[in-house]
Amino acid sequence: SPSLPEYFVVPSSLADQDLKLYSYSFIGRRMPLWSWNHPNGSALVRMANIKDVLQQRRIDQRICNAITRSHPLRSDVYKSDLDKCLPNIQEIQAAHIKLKQLCVNEPFEETEEKWLSSLENTRWLEYIR
Fold first, then answer.
1. How many CB atoms neighbour CB 45 within 10 A?
2. What is the pLDDT, as a whole number, of residue 9?
3. Which tens digits make up the pLDDT trace of 12-65?
């Protein structure tokens, strides 16, 4: 994938040929990417959606099993679909544009209450929270 770094961490139980085969199943060939690690062994792994719904469960299970085996305590994987609970990039960009327009076009001193409600309506603070 042209959008992934040259090197990244993967569980050792996933063979190179499996990774190459699985990469074609992910949108944009974006393989699971180990993003963060906690001293207790917990990790944050980002993963794109799998294109083929028929293969989705098999590939997802194989990758989750490999992640579980790599955890020092063999803890189960907790998955969260961020597409459902976070704004997409277009929503964030639109909120940022609204914020910039508000800061340039609306003088704060005139009507503080109106300005604050306009700020809230941009949703920028909600997204960065």
1. 19
2. 75
3. 778 888 888 888 888 888 877 778 877 877 778 888 888 888 888 888 888 888
Higher-confidence position of 102 and 10: 102
Q: In the chain, count H helices and then E strands.
A: 6, 2
CB 11 within 8 A of CB 69: yes
Give the span between the Cα atoms of 77 and 89, in whole angstroms: 26
Closest alpha carbon to 82 in 118, 127, 52: 127
In the block, tokens 């190179």 appear at: 16
Are the beta carbons of 78 and 42 closer than 8 angstroms?
A: no
Q: Please answer whether residues 27 and 48 qualify as being in contact, where contact means their C-beta atoms are separated by less than 8 angstroms.
A: yes
Q: Is 105 annotated as a binding residue?
A: no
Overall pTM > 0.70:
no
37 labelled binding-site residue: no
What is the dihedral angle through the alpha carbons of 96, 98, 101, 103, rounded to the nearest 10 degrees? Answer: -70
Residue in 92, 67, 87 with CA at minimum distance from that of residue 79: 67
